[in-house]
What does this fold into?
Amino acid sequence: MNQPAKAAMEGLNELFVLVAHGENDVLTVKRHERQARLLLERQAIAPAFAWLAIGAAAFLQGKRSDSKDAIKAAIRLAPKDEAVLGNASSLFALMGEASLAVQTARQLIETGIDGHGLLGALSTLKKALQLEEAFMIAEKRNAKFDPALAASAARLLEIAAEHAVGPAQRIKMIEVAAAAVFSQGSAIRQASLRHLGGELRFEFYVDESAARCGELNFAIADALCDSFDDPAPEFVTFACRPVSSYHFDGDFIQVKR
It folds into this structure.
């Protein structure tokens, strides 16, 4: 690997470390973004990875639309690359773009990936509340799944059915909640799906105080009630938390070229 390309891959991985930990080192982000754009212009790096870096940098800067466009470009250029698809689906999920996250996770699964890549795709499906699909694929591919969630999956899906909240509506609910956060001028740094006994809670981590998060929670609730006759809080609730309270517990797909 030539030195510019090696430096670019290291920069891309550093960006994803920041994403994974919910951190935002502004100078580091801008430096890696400039590097990616320069190498893209010089054709000194595979363009898919340059666009992926640009997308990750835009996400870290709270530029949701720019991030989506760059990630889509990366996918078009490398439609079967595990690292591109895996990180792309994760970024879409983090910014609340559930439909794009699911679409990309499915694309990743169709490549026949296994191991870490498959678990990442299943995690994305789970975060997008596509529980039936995630469990079906996990069983078919003999993949491990969250034991606590698996144990209560039947009851959770019963609740969803009782409230007529199908897979498509669940995706829309996530997108409505995320849009409410962005409409208030806040940027999402991380997101997680927590299993709380008999219900689920989707948490957005934002660069805001606890008091401001309370205001955002009201905005989310209003948006959900305006958009759906029954937002089914018995099945899933949505909440914002300060990113300072986020603790990373996992790993991410490193880019190696």
